[in-house]
């Protein structure tokens, strides 16, 4: 555990020109601290501000100078206090000198860890680098920076810089910015850490790495061009999905006074014969079977092991091919990167020569890979060259997995030219489309590319961690609406839309979309959004939809008594805000609950059933099977407790089932479980 | 013993892949393969290149066999029947001449394919002439109409299952474009009329009749002569249906295969373009990894299937927890609780499915922007009329201006940024190779991308980059080793093929498991050609100089060799120590539990078994290894 401890020093520029960017910086730094608390709780963090009015740091006491640099928190293990500190950074009043801050940070790390510390030592600089650093007493600024960078290297430190520009800061002197970029570039090259420019709040959010990964090689060995020629390479993952954290199930059965309760839930498995459900089979009396058409063929693990395909660990070249033979959409999985064995100059040269030649000739290599001995299968993939533009980083390859013959479904689609003329755009329409595509540009020349994948954070994760932090202080807090910076990821940029108003209008006018009148209303599922900005009194850029039959004229806001099913359906189909779905489900649940509770001799049962059926359908359409399934569970328990078990029997007789996996993907319930739910004769209750 | 080894109960909210891999197959397919077995099918051949020419009959039968094998692998519930017409023998429930329904034991005429069916169909030509025979069914002087009979039999077979839950198809393989050519006069018109009527009746019942024509090398199959009426093709449709003259056997097989496979839709997506303008798209999974079927557990005593029931128990009190609604995340010192609704709320973003954010030039889409297989989208006017027009206009603009669209796909499991890349249609002799439409490529977020290149370059020495000479030698090597006509999916998946070969052998109780050729191995023969060898040598020289042998022995990084040396020492020690115990005796007498964990691990290390787990797990692993 202690070996994986990382140390990080955040160097944050709080000078006046940075104030606009500070709210986002607060968000991203506090998220960093939060994630460390959950996933790397032994890490240590320090926070140093520069551009502050005051001065407070050790170097100023020891040798003088280093003014307007404040150590907000000295290096120590992450805790809740850090999160709070980072959420409320003080604003400074002076111009920032980043070199002073860097040196203070380095000094702190050296004093604490010395040279031999095994964990990672990282400095992270967040600044707009708009103001020049002081001239050194001797030599040029470049020399000074080079020396400091060397020093960093000796101590095993790395410094990554996130330079904020564009709309996040004000106007600045170009030559100063260029000079600073150059100097920061020296740090980046020498210590092999990244230097990133961000111009939008969203990119700033995505620029700081909040999750620590210890990279593990997938493969170390020979890239075999032929049995006589092998190049030593290491293979790592280049992309790998960061998944939503798995939350454990919570059990509230233990009394609140029990302080040692873990509140965890265990899973117990029982194996029963399909034909005779009363017979329980012990786990070791099972044997594996595989389906072959309608038959199931038993085979024991040992037998299977003897006959299965066992390729040898190797990475072999099958040949080269033109890059255009391999279409981009055939890439099957996440991407790997092939780097030459570090320190092995010959390997580096060989990889470099091949990569450059491949790039010049526009060719790619096809490989057959078996990463580990005894792996289940071979992987066939394509190697594309990655010639680096940083002198300190060697050339490498990207590797993408390609499909096998069995993975491809060769569906045939009609040719566009064969469609009737009414389905094809005429000249005017085509022109409008061309203009639209040209204008709605996310990467205009000269400006930063908007939403580059490398700098765009995952909005779901951001939202989750923020909500987690909020709930730790206010347990009943509701889920906050989507933050503005995250909205840039999920909705089109309003500014871009309004700038291109005329082109959009032309586009709209030339094309017409209308609902197919022959389709039944209930099967229509198309959606029309009003961009949420229009609710706040911005210029109304949403046109009235062509046909308004779909959205009801009266916006339903609650599930009433008279027509609960219709109210529910109307509310759940409202598209003006995502919250109506949740509310509709909630209201309907309450309605059903009330109906059952108030029923006398089962008089409300049929109505409750109607509502349940509507709720079930709504939950399938909105992909909320868990809400329905959990509700049905709770309802049945409630019925048992209130001697209303006749309701459950009524439901069973009408064959109301849980929502199974085949009906909605997110459901955890298998088809068997769904069917068997209400059929259980004795409820298992304690 | 693993808790849930077959992942039956994996929490789907944690499995974003699930959405991709589940195709909504709400309908299954019932297919009757109607194969013309007339003598003409056996005499007409198509050139097969270096192999012996294959008859049309063989082509038809091998396409069917291939399709059945694919069906088995995809574990579908589709049902098939194989029916020959223009046969000498008859076998069908209606007792009609010239029609023979092929079947094997343990199976109805129309049923899921079994191992035996596949095996027999593979070998059918050996015994076809003797058992079933080939004979013209429509001859002058007789009113026999084998085509009519065949359609009747097919329709009767498809009576099973309702048209609502099953797609019914008849796939007719023939090389005779003029079946009534030998009949004259009134009888001919009469026979044609009744045959067409029969077809209409079948179509009215929801059966789709499809033609898989086999052309002779010198002349096309002329659809207008008879079959255009049968299939109801007119005008434009007719023009589109031209079956190309099969120059190569492979092309013909490709065409047939593509016609056979019916498209399955994943879902319909609403694409919101701007300001309230939306169109509708259908999404299809053209490429998905095919995995061998999941494990079913059987009772080892009776070999009957088992089902797994799970129950949730509170860890503190042992009480049964039903439909637990809350989840929690430990944070600092507390457990922060979340309800299922809250979690849904967090994941729920926009109400639209796919929302356009803008366009970017194609070179912004990097090679490493990939996480999962792509999804193909095609417009549909079924619900929103006008969708196709807008889609085609944007498609053309994107191709012309070389741009791709960036959109946000707010799916419930994993909302994702996607790139929509336009693809123009590509046609070859084998049919449509790439359909026109757009591919939705799932883009990673910043958290998903790792900057690994920066890992190891901490040294002060800049790594070398290849000079011009080395690059040139590399280029020469690349030229020598070019894979002409490489097509992305030319390799069969060796593990999957082996899996099914094993299962088939076991199902048929055969003694031997057939060897499966691994098509993915490098072409050793090609690599020993002198031109290639010399290009390789030159490249080697320019990079390694004369030191190739030395360089590859001295492992680059000292640390790596040390760890491997250590590992070797540990395992040698383990073997030595392990030899000190009589494992069999200890196991038989239940004495393994008296040993310490360290001692148990000697056995495991010596036998290359994993070391993880508590003592119980280690013991059971040892016992399993010993076969106890």
Overview of this protein structure:
In chain A, helix 16 runs antiparallel to helix 17 (605-621). Chain A has a seven-stranded mixed beta barrel. The radius of gyration of chain A is 31 Å and the shape is globular. The two termini of chain A are 42 Å apart. Chain A has helices at residues 22-39, 58-63, 80-87, 98-113, 141-154, 174-191, 201-207, 301-307, 345-361, 427-439, 459-473, 484-490, 494-499, 501-510, 564-572, 579-597, 605-621, 625-641, 645-653, 671-676; strands at 7-13, 44-50, 69-77, 121-127, 157-164, 195-198, 219-226, 229-237, 248-249, 265-273, 280-281, 286-292, 295-298, 314-322, 336-340, 363-370, 379-386, 396-401, 514-515. By secondary structure, chain A is an alpha/beta fold. In chain A, 35% of the residues lie in helices and 18% in strands. Chain A is built from 20 helices and 19 strands. The longest helix of chain A has 19 residues, at 579-597. Chain A folds into four domains: 2-207, Rossmann fold; 215-411, Ku70, Chain: A, Domain 2 (Beta Barrel), CATH 2.40.290; 449-532, no CATH class; 564-676, Alpha Horseshoe (Serine Threonine Protein Phosphatase 5, Tetratricopeptide repeat), CATH 1.25.40. In chain B, strand 20 and strand 21 form a beta hairpin. Chain B is α+β, with helices and mostly antiparallel strands and 628 residues long. Chain B has four domains: 26-260, Rossmann fold (3-Layer(aba) Sandwich); 265-289 and 350-448, Ku70, Chain: A, Domain 2; 468-481 and 489-553, Ku70, Chain: A, domain 4; 559-626, no CATH class. Chain B contains 21 helices and 22 strands. The chains are: A alpha/beta (686), B alpha+beta (628). The interface between A and B is large, with 260 and 244 residues. Strand 10 of chain A pairs antiparallel with strand 11 of chain B, so a sheet runs across the interface. Chain A: It catalyses: ATP + H2O = ADP + phosphate + H(+). Chain A: GO terms for molecular function: ATP binding; damaged DNA binding; DNA helicase activity; double-stranded DNA binding; hydrolase activity; telomeric DNA binding. Chain A: Its EC number is 3.6.4.12.
């Amino acid at each position: 555990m202690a070996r994986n401890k990382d140390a990080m020093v955040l160097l944050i520029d709080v000078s006046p020109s940075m104030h606009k960017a500070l709210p986002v910086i607060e968000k991203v730094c506090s998220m960093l601290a939060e994630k460390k608390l959950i996933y790397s709780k032994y890490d240590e963090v320090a926070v140093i501000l520069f551009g502050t009015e005051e001065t407070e740091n050790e170097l100023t006491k020891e040798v003088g100078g280093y003014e307007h640099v404040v150590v907000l928190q000295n290096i120590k293990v992450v805790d809740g206090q850090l999160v709070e500190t980072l959420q409320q950074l003080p604003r400074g009043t002076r111009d920032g000198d980043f070199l002073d801050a860097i040196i203070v940070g380095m000094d702190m790390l050296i004093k604490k860890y010395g040279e031999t510390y095994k964990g990672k030592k990282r400095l992270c600089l967040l600044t707009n680098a708009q103001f020049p650093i002081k001239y050194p007493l001797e030599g040029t600024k470049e020399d000074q920076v080079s020396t400091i960078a060397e020093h960093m290297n000796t101590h095993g430190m790395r410094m990554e810089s996130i330079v904020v520009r564009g709309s996040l800061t004000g106007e600045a002197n170009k030559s100063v910015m260029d000079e600073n970029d150059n100097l920061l570039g020296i740090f980046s090259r020498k210590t092999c850490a990244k230097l990133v420019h961000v111009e939008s709040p969203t990119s700033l959010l995505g620029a700081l790495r909040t999750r620590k990964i210890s990279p593990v090689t997938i493969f170390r060995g020979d890239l075999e061009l032929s049995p006589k020629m092998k190049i030593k390479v290491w293979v790592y993952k280049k992309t790998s999905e960061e998944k939503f954290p798995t939350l454990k199930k919570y059990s509230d059965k233990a009394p609140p006074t029990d302080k040692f309760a873990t509140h965890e839930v265990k899973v117990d498995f029982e194996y029963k014969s399909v034909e005779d459900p009363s017979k329980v089979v012990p786990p070791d009396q099972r044997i594996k079977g595989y389906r072959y058409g309608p038959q199931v063929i038993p085979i024991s693990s040992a037998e299977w092991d003897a006959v299965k395909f066992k390729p040898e660990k190797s990475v072999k070249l099958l040949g080269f091919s033109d890059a255009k033979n391999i279409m981009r959409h055939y890439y099957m999985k996440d991407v790997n990167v092939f780097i030459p064995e570090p320190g092995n100059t010959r390997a580096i040269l060989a990889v470099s020569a091949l990569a450059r030649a491949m790039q010049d000739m526009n060719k790619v290599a096809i490989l057959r890979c078996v990463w580990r001995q005894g792996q289940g299968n071979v992987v066939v993939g394509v190697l594309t060259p990655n010639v680096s533009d940083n002198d300190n980083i060697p050339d490498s390859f990207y590797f993408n997995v390609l499909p096998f013959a069995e993975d491809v479904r060769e569906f045939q689609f009609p040719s566009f030219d064969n469609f009737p003329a009414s389905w094809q755009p005429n000249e005017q329409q085509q022109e409008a489309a061309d203009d639209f595509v040209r204008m709605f540009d996310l990467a205009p020349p000269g400006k930063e590319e908007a939403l580059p994948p490398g700098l765009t954070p995952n909005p779901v994760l951001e939202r989750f961690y923020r909500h987690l932090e909020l709930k730790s202080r206010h347990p009943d807090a509701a889920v906050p609406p989507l933050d503005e910076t995250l909205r840039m990821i999920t909705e089109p940029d309003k500014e871009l839309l309004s700038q291109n108003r005329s082109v959009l209008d032309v586009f709209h006018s030339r094309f017409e979309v209308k609902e197919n009148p022959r389709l039944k209303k209930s099967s229509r599922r198309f959606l029309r959004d009003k961009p949420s900005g229009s609710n706040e009194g911005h210029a109304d850029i949403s046109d009235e939809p062509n046909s308004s039959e779909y959205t009801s004229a009266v916006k339903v806001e609650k599930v009433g008594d008279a027509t609960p099913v219709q109210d529910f359906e109307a509310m759940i189909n409202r598209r003006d805000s995502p919250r109506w779905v949740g509310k509709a489900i909630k209201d309907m649940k309450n309605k059903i609950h009330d109906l059952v509770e108030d029923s006398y001799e089962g008089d409300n049962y049929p109505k409750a059933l109607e509502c349940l059926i509507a709720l079930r359908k709504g939950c399938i359409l909105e992909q909320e099977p868990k809400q329905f399934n959990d509700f049905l569970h709770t309802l049945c328990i409630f019925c048992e407790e209130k001697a209303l078990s006749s309701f459950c029997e009524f439901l069973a007789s009408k064959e109301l089932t849980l929502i199974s996996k085949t009906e909605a993907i997110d459901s955890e319930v298998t088809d068997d479980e769904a069917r068997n739910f209400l059929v259980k004769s004795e409820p298992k209750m304690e | 013993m693993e808790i849930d080894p077959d992942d039956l109960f994996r929490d789907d909210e944690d499995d974003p892949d699930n959405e991709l891999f589940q195709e909504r197959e709400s309908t299954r397919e019932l297919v009757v393969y109607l194969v013309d077995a007339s003598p003409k099918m056996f005499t007409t051949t198509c050139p097969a290149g270096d192999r012996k020419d294959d008859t049309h009959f063989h082509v038809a039968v091998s396409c069917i066999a291939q399709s059945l094998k694919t069906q088995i692998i995809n574990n579908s519930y589709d049902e098939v029947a194989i029916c020959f017409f223009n046969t000498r023998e008859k076998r069908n429930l209606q007792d009609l001449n010239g029609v023979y329904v092929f079947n094997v034991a343990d199976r109805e005429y129309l049923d899921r394919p079994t191992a035996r069916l596949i095996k027999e169909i593979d070998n059918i030509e050996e015994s076809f002439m003797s058992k079933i025979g080939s004979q013209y069914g429509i001859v002058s002087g007789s009113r026999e109409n084998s085509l009519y009979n065949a359609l009747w039999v097919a329709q009767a077979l498809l009576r099973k299952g309702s048209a609502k839950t099953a797609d019914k198809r008849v796939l007719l393989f023939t090389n005779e474009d003029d079946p009534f050519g030998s009949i004259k006069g009134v009888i001919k018109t009469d026979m044609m009329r009744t045959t067409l009527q029969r077809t209409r009746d079948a179509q009215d019942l929801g059966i789709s009749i499809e033609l898989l024509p086999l052309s002779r090398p010198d002349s096309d199959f002329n659809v207008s002569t008879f079959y255009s009426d049968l299939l109801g093709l007119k005008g434009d449709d007719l023009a589109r249906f031209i079956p190309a003259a099969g120059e190569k056997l492979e092309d013909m097989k490709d065409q047939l295969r593509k016609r056979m496979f019916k498209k399955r839709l994943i879902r319909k997506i609403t694409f919101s373009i701007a300001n309230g303008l939306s169109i509708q798209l259908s999404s299809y999974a053209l490429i998905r990894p095919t995995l061998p079927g999941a494990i079913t557990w059987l009772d080892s005593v009776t070999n009957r299937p088992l089902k797994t029931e799970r129950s949730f128990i509170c860890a503190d009190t042992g009480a049964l927890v039903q439909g637990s609604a809350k989840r929690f995340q430990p944070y600092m010192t507390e457990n922060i609780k979340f309800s299922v609704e809250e979690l849904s709320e967090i994941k729920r973003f926009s109400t639209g499915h796919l929302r356009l954010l803008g366009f970017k030039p194609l070179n912004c889409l990097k090679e490493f922007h990939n996480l999962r297989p792509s999804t193909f989208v095609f417009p549909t006017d079924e619900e929103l009329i006008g969708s196709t027009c807008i889609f085609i206009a944007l498609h053309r603009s994107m191709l012309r201006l070389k741009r791709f669209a960036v959109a946000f796909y707010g799916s419930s499991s994993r909302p994702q940024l996607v790139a929509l890349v336009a693809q123009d249609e590509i046609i070859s002799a084998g049919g449509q190779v790439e359909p026109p439409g757009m591919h939705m490529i799932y883009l990673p977020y910043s958290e998903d991308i790792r900057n690994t290149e920066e890992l190891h370059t901490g040294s002060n020495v800049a790594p070398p980059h290849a000079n011009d000479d080395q690059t040139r030698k590399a280029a020469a090597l690349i030229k020598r080793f070019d894979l002409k006509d490489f097509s992305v999916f030319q390799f069969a998946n060796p593990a999957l093929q082996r899996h099914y070969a094993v299962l088939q052998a076991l199902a048929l109780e055969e003694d031997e498991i057939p060897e499966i050729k691994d098509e993915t191995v490098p072409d050793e023969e090609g690599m020993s050609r002198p031109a290639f060898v010399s290009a390789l040598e030159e490249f080697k020289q320019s990079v390694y100089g004369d030191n190739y042998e030395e360089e590859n022995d001295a492992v680059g990084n000292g640390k790596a060799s040390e760890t491997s040396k250590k590992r070797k020492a540990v395992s040698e020690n383990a073997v030595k120590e392990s030899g000190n115990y009589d494992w069999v005796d200890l196991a038989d007498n239940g004495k393994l539990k008296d040993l310490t964990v360290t001692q148990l691990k000697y056995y495991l290390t010596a036998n290359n078994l994993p070391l993880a787990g508590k003592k119980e797990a280690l013991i059971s692993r040892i016992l399993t290894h010993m076969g106890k």
